[in-house]
Amino acid sequence: MSSSANDLFTLGLGLTAPWKIIDQHLDTSVNPHRLDIRIGAERGSLYPCPECGSLCKAHDFKEFTWRHLNFFQHHCYLTANVPRIKCPKHGVKRVDVPWARKGSQFTLLFEQAALALVKEMPVSAAARIIEITDKRLWRVVNHYVSKAFSKLDLSSVTAVGLDETASKKGHNYVTVFIDLDRKDRPVIFATPGKGKECLKRFSKHLRKHGGNPSNIAEVVCDMSRSFLSGVQENFVNAATTVDWFHVVQLFTRAVDDVRKAEHRENALPKGTRWAVLKSWETELTATQQEALLELESKGFLTATAYRIKEQLRWIRHAESEQALKWRITRFIRHAYEQIGSEELLNPVRNAFEIFKKYINAIVLFACPKFPFTLYFLNYEKLCNFNMLSKQSKNFRFSKEHIFLLLLRTYYSIIFHLFDLVTEV
Fold first, then answer.
1. Which residues contact 93 (CB under 8 A, 6 or more apart)?
2. Sheet-wide strand order for 218-221
3. For a surface tag, which of 157, 167, 238, 259 has the fewest beta carbons within 10 Å of its beta carbon?
4. SS (H, E, C) 6-73
5. Residue 262 and residue 272: Cα distance in Å, rounded?
6. Hey, how many other C-beta atoms are within 10 angstroms of the C-beta on 245?
7. 60 - beta bridge partners?
8. What is the full per-residue pLDDT of the chain (424 aa) written as tens digits?
9. Residue 143 · residue 403 · CB < 8 Å
10. Does the CA dihedral 217-222-226-228 come out positive or negative?
11. Distance of CA 388 to CAs 76, 155, 168, 169, 323, Å?
């Protein structure tokens, strides 16, 4: 091709001295078609030392090839003889090329495009689009996620929330930690498993990134004994708070257990299953509304359990700590009057035993030291993260999958990786 074409490619790739395009060739005999661009430098050129930047003569050369963004529909590859220089101070070193990071077989622009796809879809789907193996794409994802996490600063973290999620119906868990004071990118850690060991790992992670477990004043979690004991052992100055989401979840499961037990004895109205799992404030279908009305009018015990669960909202709307405690006391007394001695309502009775055990931690949640609105938004993000985890196809919690989940959760610190691409 003409020298003008070489100049055009040089400009398009953003090459600067001593690098320039010296040749290109489009091979249409292969499928897909392949455009090879050869990069070189004038004989006798000087190259910067990767350690100190001093300009040095080439010591020897080795040929490298990188996959670049497609040229229209054609695959594009850059090839260059990359020199080693002999620096008076640092000895023989391979120079860094400006279009690719060290050790990668892809250009920076190719990796940036690949990461943009991975953020929106499964790695396997992104790999098919850019026509590489998913194993090679995983290496790119891991590199930038690890690099982003190395810059994570947790020195100001004082309040954290945590929750675990499982893959489908298995016992393959991951526990996610969020910074409750962050409006953006609150996810700060994720680790396989659940329970006390996860708190220990998070404590180490906190120290590694400038944080101090002794500075943690608030930990919000569910009513898991292993979580609660883990908080006491690893965060000695933290007040443990039981989040309202798990309180509602506790009573919702109790209502569902009552429904199942009662359905074995008497046929319940059509639509009952999903109706009792929702609240009056959500949008119910006509069938679900009719089911709730029939449950109430015919005196089903499922209606009693559902009514108790819905009364939790009255507690949550208390305007002060004193009012909250008064409402909790009234709620428990009124609920036990409705439960009476009915055996079918044992699941609700058991839920109350757990509720009373952690009542002080529940009060702390309703009167937090940090703004509730901020906490609620962050906890909602944590729930969204869990939903994303469960919806992942063939989900398993390897290190790579956790990295991908963090990458695809736009609130997380991994959003920094796009800045890192341009910094390399």
1. 49, 50, 51, 84, 85, 87
2. 187-192, 173-179, 159-166, 218-221, 239-242
3. 167
4. HHHHHHHHCCCCCCEEEEEEEECCCCCCEEEEEEECCCCCEEECCCCCCEEEEEEEEEEEEEEEEECC
5. 11
6. 18
7. 84
8. 456 667 777 777 888 889 999 888 999 999 889 999 999 998 899 999 999 999 999 999 999 999 999 988 899 999 999 999 999 999 999 999 999 999 999 999 999 999 889 888 888 899 999 999 989 998 898 888 778 777 788 999 998 988 887 655 556 778 888 888 877 777 888 888 888 999 999 999 999 999 999 999 988 888 888 888 899 999 999 988 887 788 888 999 999 999 999 999 999 999 999 999 888 777 788 899 999 999 999 999 999 999 999 988 888 788 787 888 899 899 999 999 999 999 999 999 999 998 888 887 776 555 554 444 444 444 455 554 454 444 443 444 455 555 555 555 433 444 444 444 444 3
9. no
10. positive
11. 34, 28, 12, 15, 37
C-alpha closest to that of 112 among 82, 48, 77, 67: 67
The three state secondary structure string of the chain is CCHHHHHHHHHHHCCCCCCEEEEEEEECCCCCCEEEEEEECCCCCEEECCCCCCEEEEEEEEEEEEEEEEECCEEEEEEEEEEEEEECCCEEEECCCCCCCCCCCECHHHHHHHHHHHCCCCHHHHHHHHCCCHHHHHHHHHHHHHHHHHCCCCCCCCEEEEEEEECCCCCCEEEEEEECCCCCCCEEEEEECCCHHHHHHHHHHHHHCCCCHHHCCEEEECCCHHHHHHHHHHCCCCEEEECHHHHHHHHHHHHHHHHHHHHHHCCCCCCHHHHHHCCCCCCCCHHHHHHHHHHHHCCCHHHHHHHHHHCHHHHHCCCCHHHHHHHHHHHHHHHHHHHCCCHHHHHHHHHHHHHHHCHHHHHHHHCCCCCHHHHHHHHHHHHHHHHHHHHCCCCCCCHHHHHHHHHHCCCCHHHHHHHHHHHC
CA torsion, ordered 355, 360, 362, 364, to nearest 10 deg: 180
Residue type, 8: L
Q: Which residue has the tokens 């991951």?
A: 174
Q: What is the pTM of this model?
A: 0.67
CB 193 within 8 A of CB 173: yes
Are 417 and 148 a contacting pair, CB within 8 Å? Answer: yes
Distance spanning both ends of the chain, measured CA to CA: 32
